[in-house]
Amino acid sequence: MSQTITKKLMLFFPKCECEKPIIYHLVKDHNLIVNVFRAKVTPEEEGYLALDVTGTEEDIEKGMDFVKTFNVSINTTGKGIIVDEEQCTHCGHCITHCPTGALHIADMVTREVVYSEAKCIECMGCIRVCPYNACASAF
Amino acid sequence: MKTYEQINNRIESGKAVVLTADEIIDYVEKKGLATAAKEVDVVTTATFGPMCSSGCVLNFGHSKPKIRMSEAWVQDVLVYTGLAAVDVYLGATQLRHNDPANMDHPGEFRYGGAHVMEDLVAGKALQLFALSYGTDCYPLREIRTYFTINDLNQAIMLNPRNCYQNYNVAVNDSDRTIYTYMGTLEPKRKNANYCSAGQLSPLLNDPYYETIGVGTRVWIAGAHGHVYAEGTQHAGGGSRNDQGIPKGGSGTLALTADMKQMSKEFVRGTSFRGYGVSLALGVGIPIPILNEDVLKRTCISDREILAPVVDYSNEYPQNTGKVLSYVNYEQLRTGEIEVEGKKIAVGSLSSYYKALEIAHLLADEIKRGDFRLTEPIAYLKKDTKMKPLVAREKPS
Q: Which of A4, A36, A138, B209 is deepest in the core (most CB within 10 A)?
């Protein structure tokens, strides 16, 4: 039994693929555990989905190959929340509004605010409270 | 004992010993007060946080034909025109025309005067729209044009209040989320917000205003400006702890500097959900180490500075003056305080990270000989209290 890993993904579904039960097949046919953080279907019938998939590296790869057959773009580098480091002043207002500690003070001397994407559950609390508009949603 | 002249001579010769207000704490502990007072010339202090009482005076120069602006907007933000023909005052908290404010509560307040100031310093092209009633000497009735900061004759920041000596820690005692200038506060004291650079903050390092006064040269967002008056709501006579540190707001400074010399990363528009727009500004102030007493006061640490915890759902808005308790900045910086037996998560509005950066930038400028210190031409009052606004009947 090979080791299971978890990957964060953001999927973009073009108009023609929005009504297909792709995630169902990821679970049923590819043995993946999915944890959806946020999903949205636009009035143009395009879809966005931010999720975690857990499974063996092989299963995840096969699952992604399956997803790719549908014209769905897979973004493994960034999720639905974007923190603009140029805009952030490290004030720390977001800290108490981030339930998982994804936004946290890494160094108690410099008090730099750091964003750990892996911990983000996309609650969007930071977007609501950041005075500098440093946090944004990709969708 | 050193004089301003001696310190400036050392700066000029490139030999000045300059430390930041956090570095000086360990330095004095290691060297002792007497030795350190002889060695150290300047301690740099700094702060970066939102302060609503900010704005700037702009002079556009004259159009052909000329206009005496009676109403004007920059980027659709109303500016004050009750000055000379093409002088305006842009206030940081002014909302953009048609901003819905809190009609759909809590409002987002995406753009206002402070954002115009940020864009101006960033060198962006901005729209001016002005109207006039027309006069014989100023016949033009309307103008719409685009300008950058380089097109202006003057862009002078004029902040009636900045660098609050100390400040409240805000909590929310009610059972609904409240939206304040101290940030978003969750119900039942779920979180607390503070707003001070603590041990780095200028007036906490000079609690009796011995070196910082009217005329003191200060670093404002990279420009060399100065303190032009005591700040509005300056109340130097508030209660102090054993070390002379005010236990609440107390002293403030009125600041001015040329915006053409400023860097955009230290002039930032802020949007406080449900509250409005404010300006976050980076300020650095050098303290000349004239004697051991002045040095001793710059050694203040976060642990020794107390801030009042205040309820912003009822006590602050109703102006009752009630303080729940006092906490120190060392406790605040751990991210958790305890008030009346309850643990509260702590966030901040003032950026210590930026303040530290500014304190180092200013120290470097002084070491290079690019920033000289000035002696105040007038000192700030130490005995004044804050007066309330009383709603009175019309006097007979």
A: B209
Tokens read off for A109: 């001397």
Distance CA B46, CA A116 (A): 29
Look up tokens 């009947």; give the residue.
B393
**Residue at a domain's end among A75, A94, A116:** A75
- The owner of tokens 């200013």 is B362
Do A56 and A104 sit in the same domain of this protein?
no
Enclosing domain of residue A115: 81-137
Q: Which two tokens stand for residue B385?
A: 């209290």
Residues of chain B with pLDDT under 70: none
Q: Of A32, A58, A75, which marks where a domain is finished?
A: A75
- Calculate Rg over the CA atoms of chain B: 22
For chain A positions 75-114, those within 8 Å of chain B (CB to CB) are 89-97, 105, 108, 110-113
| H or E stretch at B11 | helix B4-12
Q: Does B301 touch chain A (CB under 8 A)?
A: no
Residues 6+ apart with CB under 8 A from B184: A97, A128, A129, B177, B178, B273, B274
Number of A/B CB contacts below 8 angstroms equals 74
Query: What does the DSSP 8-state code read for residue B83?
Result: S
Q: Answer yes or no: do A41 and A20 share one domain.
A: yes
Q: Using a CB-CB distance cutoff of 8 angstroms, which residues of chain B are in contact with residue A96?
A: 186, 190-193, 345-347
Which residues, 6 or more positions from A21, have their beta carbon under 8 angstroms from its beta carbon? none
User: Does any CB of chain B come closer than 8 Å to the CB of residue A28?
Assistant: no
Name the nearest CA neighbour of B301 among B18, B19, B17, B24. B24
The set of catalytic residues of B is: 137
Query: With contact defined as beta carbons under 8 Å apart, do A64 and A36 qualify?
Result: no
Gap from A27 CA to chain B (nearest CA, Å): 38
Residue matched to tokens 């101006």: B120
Q: How confident is the model at residue A77 (pLDDT cuts 50, 70, 90)?
A: confident
A1 touches chain B (CB under 8 A): no
User: Predicted ipTM?
Assistant: 0.94
pLDDT digits (tens, 9 = 90+) for A94-134: 999 999 999 999 999 999 999 998 899 999 999 999 999 99
Q: Which candidate in B111, B348, B354 is best for mutational testing of the A interface (most A CBs within 10 A)?
A: B348
Q: Which chain A residues are closer than 8 Å to B335 by Cβ?
A: 95, 105
